[in-house]
Amino acid sequence: MSKKRVLSGIQPTHDSFHLGNYLGALKQWVALQDDNDAYYCVVDLHALTVETDPKLLQKRTLLSAAQLIAIGIDPGKSTLFVQSQVPAHNQLAWVFECITGFGEASRMTQFKDKSQKGGAERTNVGLFTYPILQAADILLYQPDFVPVGEDQRQHIELTRDIAERFNKKFGKVFNIPQAQIIKSLAKISDLQEPTAKMSKSATSMAGVIEILDTPEAILKKFKSSVTDDDKEIRFDEKLKPGISNLLSIHSALSGKSVKEVESEFSGKGYGDFKSVVAEIVIETLKPIARRTNELMSDKDGLIKILQDGSERANQVASSTLKAAYNAVGII
Ligand code: TYM
């Protein structure tokens, strides 16, 4: 049986990924690489929608690749590459922009949120066309599955719509991919604001656990996490979003079910529970941070891995681009 194809991407907008990225997406990326033909990219072009110092973007692109390898992405199994090193992404994005409605793109909630936050002055056109570039990232590789967190669901829907529209108009070129979203981990919340998702662009980092945080910082963030006035450690997303978030994190990392964790902590206080969750997170992240630092001390080695990856990615992407160009009549 031929392997299924998987593709996903992550933005290098910060020095460190966070626990939401790790549990919602990256842990799945690692699990999927064994039995699938996996393509994972650091989407540096998408990161240009946020104003960043050029040197910092360079550093963060490498840091992102290092973190992915440290988490367990094996460049021998997966094709790990940087988006900008595969020009077909931009080339196909233009074709897609010409078959995407202005209204359709305007309905993307991430665009609406980000443009509202930034105001008209700071909203660039790249932010508006962002999901169309994402559709190109995906469809170039003809994947069956796209492992992502809940916040990307609408972008994957748009990607499917674009692929279907293209195929209908110009003949079948694209496979229609499915989002792969693990419900219980798809929206890890901010520890200070448990009804909001953990996000790289949070106004305060007090509720955001970064993969490269020190153990002391992680413990402090968990200890001061916002819960409720009740005393019971019980999963109830509506009434107890903070405790439910901690239960999800514990369960994902300990491998125990939420029910098992609930009964383990029955009658115990929130303080004890927070410390245990912190400890599990610290033990998971410590080796990842160590390995990331080791990889960053050999930048040439890292660049070589990414070059190999982009060569492989270019082969697949350029053949899909050629088929798409042919279909629309570009000679
Ligand atoms: P990005 O860089 O914001 O996030 C990377 C991945 O992490 C997931 N994620 C979360 N999951 C659970 N809980 C959270 N609090 C949380 N925060 C983030 C995201 O859903 C994502 O899977 N547009 C994409 C990048 C992208 C992409 C692609 C993804 C560009 N091209 C092609 C897939 C396929 C983004 O901004 O992800």
Provide key terms for this protein.
single chain; 331 residues; mainly alpha; Rossmann fold; Tyrosyl-Transfer RNA Synthetase; 2 domains; three-stranded parallel β-sheet; 5 strands; globular; binds tryptophanyl-5'AMP
- First-to-last CA distance: 36 Å
* Assembly type: single chain
Approximately how much helix is present in the residues? 40-55%
Supply the number of helical segments: 13
Domains (count): 2
**What is the name of the CATH class of the largest domain?**
Alpha Beta
Secondary-structure element order, N to C? EHEHHEHHHHEHEHHHHH
Q: Which stretches of 5+ consecutive residues score pLDDT under 50?
A: none
CATH homology superfamily name of the largest domain: HUPs
Sketch the major β-sheet: 3 strands, parallel
Query: What radius of gyration results from the CA coordinates?
Result: 21 Å
Shape-level CATH architecture of the largest domain = 3-Layer(aba) Sandwich
Q: Name the overall outline.
A: globular
Numbering strands along the chain, what is their spatial order in the largest sheet? 1-2-3
Ligands bound, unique: tryptophanyl-5'AMP
Record field, number of beta strands: 5
